[in-house]
Amino acid sequence: MREVLGKRLGDAEADLAFNFYSAAYRRAWRLFDDVRPCFAALQGAKLGMITHGEPATQRRKIDALGLSAHFDVTVIADEVGVAKPDARIFAMACARLGAPPERAIHIGNDRRVDAEGAAAAGLRGFWLDRFGLGSDDPLRIASLSSVPSLLAGTA
Fold first, then answer.
1. Are residues 67 and 20 in the same domain?
2. Torsion-angle region of 51 (φ positive above 0: left; ψ -120 to 50: alpha; else: beta)
3. What is the count of structural domains for the chain?
4. What is the pLDDT of residue 140?
5. In this structure, what are the phi and psi dihedrals at residue 100, rounded to the nearest 5 degrees?
6. Do 139 and 100 share a structural domain?
């Protein structure tokens, strides 16, 4: 027996509820409108992705969204045993890309984990703040449309 929202469910009911959730979760996977134009502007650049979560689910999501074609390297924290903001995961991604940290940037949706973690590892770190939570923050970018100019600053 499992309890869901205060109701005790048998294994078959719990499996049904989980399968319903999983299907809805997959249907909700969407790219923001600025993602594809950003990739088009960065064509030819070496790109890496650092993510966390259950590896099989992360890989399904990456493939379903067509992201794997745009990244040269994908580092999944749960596969390598270290997660952001630990400097080792940023070093792994840079090493796999063949890019020295001081010539790399990292953009993520968490200021502390992504922007500050990357900076502590020697990269230029930025916080993708799509919701305007830190409008005066120097580590903040509001859209991926800013990325090409950020990369130009790493040359």
1. no
2. beta
3. 2
4. 95
5. -65, 140
6. yes
Instruction: Give the separation between CA 100 and CA 124, rounded to whole angstroms.
Output: 11
Q: Name the residue range of residue 22's domain.
A: 1-30
Task: Please state, in angstroms and rounded to a whole number, the distance separating the CA atoms of residues 150 and 146.
Answer: 6
Give the domain CATH number at 110.
3.40.50.1000
Residue pair 65/31 in contact by the 8 Å Cβ criterion: yes
Pair 70, 47: CB distance under 8 Å? yes
∠ CA 71-74-77, rounded to 5°: 155
Mean per-residue pLDDT pooled into runs of 10, the chain (155 residues)? 74 89 93 96 95 95 96 97 97 97 96 97 96 88 93 66
pLDDT of residue 8: 86
Both tokens of residue 113? 């984990």
